[in-house]
From TrEMBL:
Leader sequence residues: none
UniProt similarity note: Belongs to the zinc-containing alcohol dehydrogenase family.
Domain named Enoyl reductase (ER): residues: 18-355
GO MF term list: alcohol dehydrogenase (NAD+) activity; metal ion binding
Protein name: alcohol dehydrogenase
Obligatory cofactor(s): Zn(2+)
Protein species of origin: Pycnoporus cinnabarinus
Metal-binding is among the record's keywords: yes
One Pfam family of this chain: ADH_N
Length: 359
């Protein structure tokens, strides 16, 4: 028999009413009741939710596309299924299962991008904490086909950050056309996405050149398995240093998550012949200005990579659950979300922030 869960009528939630109003944390937001769920929908009681830079963009409204308002943000939630809509057919998950809610909340699985495995670019896609309410609440409604089963062997708080940051860098490395023993450059290697990227790259047999700044980040990157370290504030010529660090020929690939256009242009210069630039950052407004002459003559491939599909999510979580990837995070409460946004805006957050939704 399926376990029974008590489902309250109201819950704590952080609500963005307008992009310029202060964030409102309430404790009387209604919980969608089991009988209100449509077939195929499920209700998830959340343990925790990670905070991502995307949440800040949704909150500030500075992207070329706008979030719904009022909005409950959040797209790195982990919890348990406590109810499934009546008349749901062939559900791949059951009540009591531990699952994750990621950025891609729903995809049609039938449009051309979906059929080609690019469901994150679905023509009818729904996005958690952006076009549908997300995980900065104690309960969230999702779809049985799109929640991600969380494997044993990984704590909920750790799985939370894998659901967005982890999937994003994992997929970017997976499609970087690299092979075991190749050199990969990771600018921002000591940050939230970067420190996960270092570990996935090492787990995939790649040799990592970590680019970031400061003694603390240097120590972290080298501890996680980066072979070379370049401090971008100390170097006189970043491109020259990277080429020197990679046998004098340049790197096979770079996964660039930066918010500035210059980091992408630089990559064309330090990649070797036939190298691949993975474009991953989602800055509010920036263009990619690659030198056409060298892109052509060096046979460079430029690839945009956007989070990941359901398979990428399973793979990224599986690698982490087997202990190959550890996330460095600080656990906070939902009421500290506003100050976390301030910290993100000022670039002061080290590692990832995960909110405990149980308190
Ligand atoms: Zn995210
Ligand atoms: Zn689709």
């Amino acid at each position: 028999m399926a376990p029974q869960f008590h489902i309250p009528k109201v819950q704590k939630a952080a609500i963005v009413e307008t992009t310029d109003a202060p964030l409102k944390v309430v404790d009387n937001h209604p919980v969608k009741q089991p009988h209100e769920l449509a077939p195929g929908e499920c209700l998830v009681e959340l343990d925790c939710s990670g905070v991502c830079h995307t949440d800040l963009h949704a909150r500030q409204g500075d992207w070329p596309i706008q979030a719904k308002l009022p909005l409950i943000g959040g797209h790195e939630g982990v919890g348990r299924i406590v109810a499934i809509g009546e008349h749901t057919q062939d559900s791949p998950v059951k009540i009591g299962d531990r699952v994750g809610i990621k950025w891609l909340a729903y995809s049609c699985l039938d449009c051309e991008p979906c059929r080609k495995g690019l469901e994150q670019s679905c023509l009818k896609g729904k996005y958690s904490g952006f076009t549908v309410d997300g995980t900065f609440s104690q309960y969230v409604v999702s779809w049985v086909t799109h929640v991600t089963p969380i494997p044993d062997g990984i704590a909920s708080a750790e799985a939370a950050s894998i659901l967005c940051a982890g999937i994003t860098v994992y997929r970017a490395i997976k499609y970087s056309r690299t092979h075991i023993g190749d050199w990969i450059v990771l600018p921002g290697a000591g940050g939230g996405l970067g420190h996960l990227a270092v570990q996935y790259a090492v787990a995939m047999g790649l040799r990592v050149v970590a680019v970031d700044t400061g003694a603390e980040k240097k120590e972290l990157c080298l501890k996680l398995g980066a072979e070379k370290w370049i401090d971008f504030k100390e170097t006189k010529d970043l491109v020259k240093d990277i080429i020197a660090a990679t046998d004098g020929y340049g790197a096979h690939a770079a996964v660039v998550t930066a918010a500035t256009g210059s980091a992408y242009a630089q990559a064309i210069d330090y990649l070797r012949m036939g190298g691949t630039l993975m474009v991953v950052g989602l800055p509010a407004r920036a263009s990619l200005s690659a030198d056409i002459f060298f892109t052509v003559t060096k046979s460079i491939t430029i690839v945009g990579s956007y989070v990941g599909n359901r398979q990428d999510a399973r793979e990224a979580l599986d690698i982490a659950a087997r202990g190959k990837v550890k996330c460095y995070y600080q656990l906070k409460s939902l009421s500290s979300l506003a100050e976390t946004y301030e910290g993100l805006a000022e670039g002061k957050i080290v590692g990832r922030v995960v909110l405990n939704m149980k308190e």
